[in-house]
TrEMBL record:
It comes from Massilia cavernae. Belongs to the 'phage' integrase family. Pfam families: Phage_int_SAM_4, Phage_integrase. One of its GO terms (molecular function) is DNA binding. InterPro entries: CB, DNA_brk_join_enz, Integrase-like_cat_sf, Integrase_catalytic, Integrase_recombinase_N, Integrase_SAM-like_N, Tyrosine_recombinase_XerCD. It comes from the Bacteria. Keywords: DNA integration, DNA recombination, DNA-binding. The keyword Transmembrane does not apply. This is Integrase. Residues 101-280 form the Tyr recombinase domain. Residues 3-84 form the Core-binding (CB) domain. PANTHER family: PHAGE INTEGRASE-RELATED, PROPHAGE INTEGRASE INTD-RELATED. GO terms for biological process: DNA integration; DNA recombination.
């Protein structure tokens, strides 16, 4: 039997829908509030600032990461500020610093081996897009055939992260790869006219991100790459390799769709080719 939605929960859902929050964000916010209610043992709108302080301490003791704590605080902030109009209750919940780790990056040889080890032409083309254009996994599976603009040599990315459209680069090698995949898929009836560039089992639906992740893990095993490989490592590698090729960092920022330049600047710390070009002051010392 389906449990009835409480008026408070429905109000929060309506508040999120009014602001057009993404479905995943809505689900996450509801989970955070439900978790608070379970901790309290009573409705979440009866919480005090001390209750919220104790709840954060409880999450820390449960082993929540810094990122998970901050996401929880964001969800509760929405609930108390927007839905129940008591922003002052959040005064004793404090976001925590998130350790900033350097992204893992593939060498050019590893990137080539990884793509070549994909189990099918579709996955080889999809991985080529992620590395060759720096797209996120969700952006790769969201491409349609009409998003490939060979005249202007760009890929149109619709509603990427932050609900923004942008253009990504389309190199001649990537265009050749996509054309080869399109010809094969069209001949086999896997791509509909104007449909998804990387369809799922049913051509009406796009390939799933989870399927793409499974494919890259299998390719990494076959290529014997020891690093922790995910779809995002191809995006990291794209940015790092461009930086090593002396591409202006502001151009890379635009290609990646980063809002802040300091996010892109992180790749300067992993661009080892640039580090090798720097002459150490030790090497300039004259013998005593």
């Amino acid at each position: 039997m389906t449990q009835a939605i409480t008026p408070l929960r429905q109000r929060m859902i309506d508040d999120m829908r009014m602001r057009k929050l993404a479905p995943k964000t809505q689900s996450a916010y509801l989970l955070h509030v439900r978790r608070l209610a379970a901790f309290l043992g009573r409705p979440p709108d009866t919480a005090t600032s001390e209750d919220l302080r104790l709840f954060q301490l409880h999450l820390v003791e449960q082993g929540f990461t810094s990122s998970a704590l901050n996401v929880t605080i964001t969800g509760l902030k929405f609930f108390f500020e927007v839905t129940v109009h008591h922003p002052e209750l959040m005064a004793r919940m404090h976001p925590v610093p998130v350790p900033r780790k350097l992204p893992q990056v593939l060498s050019r040889d590893e990137a080539a081996r990884l793509i070549a080890s994909a189990c099918s032409p579709k996955y080889r083309a999809a991985l080529s897009v992620a590395y060759g254009a720096g797209l996120r996994a969700s952006e790769v599976v969201g491409l349609k055939v009409t998003d490939v603009d060979s005249g202007r040599m760009v890929l149109r990315v619709e509603q990427g992260k932050g609900h923004k459209d942008r253009y990504a680069m389309l190199s001649p090698a990537l265009l050749d790869c996509l054309r080869a995949w399109w010809r094969t898929a069209r001949a086999e009836g896997k791509i509909l006219h104007g449909g998804w560039l990387f369809p799922g089992q049913n051509p009406v639906d796009p390939l799933g991100v989870r399927q793409l992740n499974r494919a890259i893990h299998a390719a990494a095993d076959l290529a014997r790459i020891d690093k922790h490989v995910s779809m995002h490592i191809l995006r990291h590698s794209f940015a790092t390799h461009l930086l090593e090729q002396k591409v202006d960092i502001r151009v890379i920022q635009t290609l990646l769709g980063h809002k802040r330049l300091d996010t892109t600047a992180l790749y300067a710390q992993v661009a080892t080719d640039l580090l090798r070009e720097v002459i150490s002051p030790l090497d300039t010392l004259q013998p005593a």
